[in-house]
Fold this sequence. Notes:
single chain, 0% strand
Amino acid sequence: MEQESRLAGTVRPGGRTARVRAAVLEATQDELVERGFHGLSMDQVAARAGVGKTTVYRRWGSPAGLVADLMTELAEQSSPHADTGSVEGDLRANAVGVLAAVTDPRLGATFQAVIAAATCDDDAAGALHAFYGRRVREWAKAVDLAVKRGELPAGTDGEEVIRAVSAPLYYRLLVTREPVDAAVAERAALRTLAAARAGAFVTGALPSGSGPEGAAADGAGQADQR
């Protein structure tokens, strides 16, 4: 989600092992951006990073191993969840962060390459799942705080709320290939907030269309598809 546009960790202090890892992961990201997952070559990454091929093969084992470690690094260097003092501010901050990530020329291309690979490679899918699981859990803490403040109903599933914020952005980015901009992010945050306030994300809530919570969720979902 929220990242620096260059691979975080490349300026991290440390010994030779840390420097090698940083160089290899930056080279991996460069290769993903330029060639995609299926064009990712261990030899090319080693050459680009200026390290021996045997080191890359021994430590990472495969292109999928490189991608998994890259996604771990990106998750570790992501920003913590916002704490603006209101759930509206926090959800807007989340949407803005996702927007910044997916529209960044380098980082957005990285995510698109890994997402594309995840459709046909189990290891890439695992790396992507771990990355987003970590980010969703981090931002769900903001929703949990909102529940404690009484801004959202008790039992609200924070992870589902955070997924709902980013879903319209990824839908446009990857499925319909429509523009993803600040207006889209704003609508995603506010529609998710309206549904959350209505109880649509309460654990064990009525199925969609069975009551006021379902109606709120349906309205938000239909609006996102337009």
